[in-house]
Amino acid sequence: MARVLAALAALAAISTGLAQAQPAYPSRPVKVIVPFAAGGPADIYARAVGEKLQAALGQPFVVENRPGGGAVVGTDAVAKSAPDGYTLLMMSNTHTVNESLLRDKPYQLLRDLVPVAPVNYSDLVMVVHPSVPANTLAEFLSLAKSKPGGLNYASSGPGTPYHMAGELFKAMAGVDIVHVPYKGSSGARTDILGGQVHMMFDAITTMAPNVRAGKLKALGTSGKSRSGVLPEVPTVSEAGVPGYEAVIWLGIMAPAGTPKAIVDRLNAEISRATGTPEMREAWGRQGAAAMSMSPDEFARFMREDIEKWARIVRISGAKPDQ
């Protein structure tokens, strides 16, 4: 018995020593990969959250943009990274759409990555070029129904929240509007401002200045209630498509196998950062609202979102190259 106790004591001492030898996380810079172009919501909010995490955890959180393949290129790089908490992914609901839209991608979202924490969500705004002879959503619907396939809408690419907001709108409103995909949001915005395309769903924060300047007409916002950024604009639901709702939301994921202790710590720090009155007020002015969930709650949320958009992809017939 004495020998057994001595052996157990020795093992305990070794375990304690190994635990003490492990450096506290994070002990070096953390990379946050954004699989979208610089300047968009994912990039902007990744940098905002990264600054807060750096201040709280004492290590740089370096944002790296790796766009391409409808967010697949950067996401796959994270999925194949070491599961040690030093490579993270800033993702959006583009990723939950891609689960049904892009079946041949080299990863599965909830198999190869683990949810860490949501960040925020923003409503979109439906805008049209001033040349479009419609000043209200009802007038636009009447115009679209009188000219099936005669109107078009821009998006930043297949599977993006802007694309799926348009497909959801088409399905719920019963209209035939042609999707014009771009390789990024900047090209889509340039062309709707120039009148090359008729309509677009885009982030309120980006389009509000153009609406106020009279460069575009806002026909509706995409949330359940009116936006504080454009309170004079009705929601799409109240203006003519009852029940319509589409937002862009962002979150952080890590490679599958990342230690739970690291996931939990990141979740706590992200929730703390996004929950400060300062951050909530600043984001509120931009039309964004902070989200807070445990990793398990975030995983459930993502599974439900995957199912929601799978239905829309099926109903709309959306394809990766459309």
Please render the helix and strand layout as text.
Elements: H1 2-21, E1 30-34, H2 41-57, E2 61-65, H3 72-79, E3 87-92, H4 93-101, H5 109-112, E4 113-128, H6 137-146, E5 151-155, H7 161-173, E6 177-181, H8 185-194, E7 199-203, H9 204-212, E8 217-221, H10 236-239, E9 247-255, H11 260-274, H12 277-286, E10 288-290, H13 295-316
Helix pairs in contact: 2-11, 4-13, 7-13
Overview features:
322 residues, 2 domains, D-Maltodextrin-Binding Protein, domain 2, 47% helix, ten-stranded mixed beta sheet, 20% strand, alpha/beta
Task: Explain what you see.
The protein is of the alpha/beta class and 322 residues long. It folds into two domains: 29-120 and 249-316, Bordetella uptake gene, domain 1 (D-Maltodextrin-Binding Protein, domain 2); 123-239, Periplasmic binding protein-like II (D-Maltodextrin-Binding Protein, domain 2, 3-Layer(aba) Sandwich), CATH 3.40.190. 47% of the residues lie in helices and 20% in strands. It has 13 helices and ten strands. Strands 1, 2, 3, 4, 5, 6, 7, 8, 9 and 10 form a ten-stranded mixed sheet that branches. Helix 2 (41-57) crosses helix 11 and helix 4 packs across helix 13 (295-316). The protein is globular. The relative contact order is 0.17. The model has no long low-confidence stretch (mean pLDDT 91).
